[in-house]
Write a structure and sequence with these properties.
Blueprint (H helix, E strand, L loop, with lengths): L1 E7 L3 H11 L3 E2 L8 E2 L4 E7 H10 L4 E5 H7 L4 E6 L9 E8 L14 E4 L2 H10 L5 E4 L13 E6 L3 H5 L2 E10 L1 E5 L1 H5 L1 H20 L2 E9 L3 H5 L9 E4 L5 E9 H14 L2 E7 L6
Parallel strand pairs: 1-4, 1-5, 8-9, 8-10
Antiparallel strand pairs: 2-3, 5-12, 6-12, 7-10, 7-11, 13-15, 13-16, 14-15
Length: 287
């Protein structure tokens, strides 16, 4: 049995969706900390993302999903198996930023000498201030950090798009770190051959699901006289798959591509002679 820690809170919904795309159905009631997984070899437990790296390091769980920020904040000695670039809203890395009110005189980190900051990321913030030679007081924020502006001089807060900071009339002064979700493993578990193979399998499937989020499959029928022209237009992981149809002079062509490119390419393919064009979603892309 493999004990796996999943993040409860803001990352929960996107993590469950990623697990589903990877082939694991996870179900939890709103108050449950022990979700069910349709894999009898996995026992899942919900923790706050801030705690998971400590529990992995201590061997309470064999592996878990948490942010690079919390691994750094806790100073956890764990195996980083894979980087999984997803967050609660987007597929972009999130940032921990130093923010102040729009009217603040603070223009850079150097202006924080003697100031008071609030953040959940206390250790990382203190290290960053020390690197800049700044002497400031950092206090732990138990949530609603943006609301503390006006009480403290500055905050260090996690943001994906910056929209929440802007709506609260806050100005970003500096970025302390960029963070992504990591699949991490306990060092002793990583040395166990069965557990390591299972963890590597999970990693492969999760990474495949991440890649598939921005990819689509494309199928079409292509006449022989347009084949070379159309093949030259198509991206692919290797090369497009081409198969002759039963009707002489026609070919079935299939490829995988970035979804954002398909909206431009599909009309061009049709004008180039492709017919029966089908775009379909993907669950996993394993290179």
């Amino acid at each position: 049995m493999l004990k796996m820690g999943l993040p409860k809170g803001s990352l929960q919904e996107s993590t469950f969706d990623l697990m589903r795309r990877a082939g694991f159905t996870v179900h939890a009631s709103s108050r449950s900390y022990f979700p069910t997984v349709d894999d009898e070899e996995i026992e899942a437990i919900m923790f706050r993302a801030q705690e998971i790296s400590r529990y992995v390091e201590d061997g309470v769980i064999d592996l878990g999903l948490t942010g690079k920020d919390w691994i750094e904040e806790n100073g956890s000695d764990v195996v980083e198996v894979a980087e999984l670039t997803y967050s609660k809203q987007t597929l972009r890395p999130a940032r921990w930023v130093l923010a102040v009110p729009e009217s603040s005189d603070i223009k850079s980190v150097k202006d924080l000498n003697g100031k008071l900051l609030a953040t959940e990321l206390v250790n990382v913030t203190n290290r960053d201030l020390k690197e800049h030679g700044v002497d400031a007081k950092v206090e732990y924020s138990y949530g609603a950090t943006e609301a503390k502006v006006g009480i403290v001089d500055a905050i260090v807060e996690l943001t994906e798009t910056g929209s929440s900071l802007r709506s609260n009339r806050l100005r970003i002064v500096d970025t302390l770190m960029t963070t992504t979700t990591r699949l991490i493993a306990n060092k002793q578990s990583w040395q166990d051959s069965w557990k390591r193979t299972k963890i590597e399998n999970i990693s492969t499937l999760l990474q495949g699901a991440i890649r598939a989020l921005v990819k689509v499959g494309l199928k079409m029928n292509v006449p022989e006289e347009a084949k070379e022209r159309i093949l030259a237009m198509l991206p692919a992981l290797k090369t497009p798959t081409v198969s002759p149809l039963t009707e002489q002079g026609w070919y079935a062509v299939e490829t995988v591509m970035d979804e954002v490119e398909s909206r431009t390419l599909i009309p061009e393919l049709k004008r180039a002679g492709a017919q029966g064009i089908i775009e379909y979603p993907l669950n996993k892309v394993i290179p």
